[in-house]
Design brief:
This protein is an alpha+beta fold and about 500 residues long. It has two domains: about 290 residues, 3-Layer(aba) Sandwich (Aminopeptidase), CATH 3.40.630.10; about 150 residues, Alpha-Beta Plaits (2-Layer Sandwich). It has 14 helices and 17 strands. Strands 1, 2, 3, 6, 7, 8, 15 and 16 form an eight-stranded mixed β-sheet that branches. Strands 11-13-9-14 form a four-stranded antiparallel β-sheet, covered by helices on one side. The protein has a three-stranded antiparallel β-sheet with strand order 4-5-17. α2 packs across α14. The termini are far apart. It comes from Tepidicaulis marinus. This is Conserved protein.
Length: about 500
């Protein structure tokens, strides 16, 4: 027994030594040298005012296309041309599908693959009835109290205007790019981009263009949003989840509500959805989630760093902790979200059918068949039919973090936001960048906008805003990125 105890004690000491060594090995992170901030003169108040003007155009994407007002997109396009003449003189503009814009600022070396920066012109509607809760009207573009207010400041006119502000100043200074840089501004991202960036992506493919890298929206600069990590974390999306919705339909005999059977259509559907939600998809720390944890480990307090640095031992602990938060849990697995229910025509009549729509954001380890099989097995009821209700989209491929594109983004994050940690991550929503998967292997999703604990609800919500200071940083970020990206370095 003494020998066994001695052996166990020795094993514990060895494990402890391995854990400590691995912990101290990540104490000094290796990052690329921070980019020197561009010396371009930026008038932050003027840039903020112009963003406010851009917000005033009600370029709203509605789920029903006929409800969208094309004239607002045309007015925005005309305003953009009048406001940024140097950029429009330097770059060739193409109008795609009536309202989307593709700019090409040609470089001197045509052997170099172009870079593509992306944003989108359209915004989501304001929730009916919420207008009175806005501190400033949602399409006023008011600049007050150090903020620019309005629908689209975060998603996504803020970054679009910052890009064009930077390009305008560089063009006015006479920048002569060696590498071509392109800008794609879609008009229907909020409804999937079928007429905007999907068409532009196909256009580039037909022209035989390969993109050096693509930078779109997705990740943000999270300020005290990452559990256990103090300060700012810039999250650069290296992949995004897929999307599909399934229709679950339960059938039953109708009749009078005064004589209900043991099983009704509504009850059967409710049980099916309950069983589905109680059987989540398998999780796991792999791919972008693992890379994110590894990147954040050096910035974590000692005990958390010890756990992060030893995923081989503490993996289940990390997964349990991440699963407790909907935000981090979405990094680990395909998510299940019942979103719509339909049944019945009158309160005292039993419906003959009840239908539920369930939305799934698909993890890169899964595909459409996995989702259908999981749902069918989870509800385990042959009386409930399971049908795919939209075309869906598969998860994107995972882009590398050792490419020049990722390195450039990281360098300019460190330059614009000193002291920030930089980490790759999995974007749980959808972006238009997925339409460029056939013309580039290096697709990254990041906008230089800082969001803190009180800001996340503003995304697609009430009182959307960004700070004037953040606008200045975003312009400087894009100015430096454009200068570096077009220099022709390989």
């Amino acid at each position: 027994m003494k020998k066994i105890l001695a052996g166990l004690g020795a094993l514990v000491l060895v494990l402890a030594a391995i854990v400590l060594v691995r912990t101290f090995m990540v104490a000094a992170p290796e990052s690329p040298e921070a980019a020197l901030e561009s010396d371009i003169a930026i008038d932050a108040e003027a840039a903020a005012r112009r963003l406010g003007e851009a917000i005033q155009f009600k370029t709203i994407s509605h789920q029903i296309p006929s409800q969208s007002k094309g004239e607002e997109f045309v007015k925005f396009r005309d305003w953009l041309e009048a406001t940024y003449p140097a950029f429009h003189n330097a770059a060739q503009r193409e109008i795609v599908s009536d309202y989307s814009l593709l700019f090409t600022w040609k470089g001197s070396d045509e052997s170099l693959d172009p870079v593509l920066l992306m944003s989108h012109i359209d915004v989501v509607p304001v929730i009916p009835g919420s207008e009175g809760s806005w501190e400033h009207p949602p399409f006023s573009g008011t600049v007050a109290d150090g903020f620019i207010w309005g629908r689209g400041t975060i998603d996504n006119k803020g970054s679009l205007i910052a890009m064009v502000e930077a390009a305008e100043m560089l063009a006015a200074q006479g920048l002569k790019p060696k590498r071509t840089i392109m800008f794609a501004f879609g008009h229907d991202e909020e409804v999937g981009g079928p007429q905007g960036n999907q068409v532009i992506g196909q256009l580039l493919k037909e022209r035989g263009i390969r993109l050096h890298f693509v930078a779109d929206e997705g990740g943000i600069v999270a300020d005290n949003l990452m559990p256990g990590i103090e300060g700012k974390v810039a999250l650069i999306g290296i992949a995004e989840k897929g999307y599909i919705s399934l229709t679950l339909t339960a059938h039953a005999q109708g009749g009078h509500s005064s004589m209900p059977p043991r099983e009704t259509a509504v009850g059967t559907l409710a049980k099916a959805i309950d069983r589905l939600q109680k059987k989540p998809f398998e999780g796991g720390i792999e791919g972008p989630a693992a890379q994110m944890i590894d990147a954040l480990a050096p910035h974590a307090p000692f005990l958390q760093r010890m756990v992060f640095a030893n995923r081989w031992l503490f993996g289940p602990v990390i997964e349990n902790l991440m699963s407790a938060s909907p935000t981090s849990d979405a990094q680990l697995r395909t998510t299940i979200a019942p979103t719509m229910l339909r049944a019945g025509l009158k309160e005292n009549v039993l419906p003959t059918s009840a239908t539920g729509i369930v939305n799934f954001r698909i993890h890169p380890r899964n595909d459409f068949d996995d989702v259908v099989d999981h749902v069918t097995e989870a509800i385990d009821d042959p009386t409930v039919t399971v049908e795919i209700s939209n075309p869906g989209r598969l998860p994107s491929t995972v882009s590398p973090t050792d490419s020049e594109g990722y390195t450039l983004l990281e360098r300019h994050v460190l330059g614009a936001f000193p002291g920030a940690a930089v980490a790759p991550n999995l974007v749980v929503g959808g972006t238009d960048s997925r339409h460029y998967g056939e013309v580039s292997d290096n697709i990254y999703r990041f906008i230089p906008i800082v969001l803190g604990p009180g800001d996340t609800a503003r995304f697609h919500g009430t009182n959307e805003r960004i700070t004037v200071e953040n606008m200045e940083k975003a312009v400087r970020f894009y100015a430096g990125l454009i200068e570096d990206a077009t220099s022709g370095a390989q």
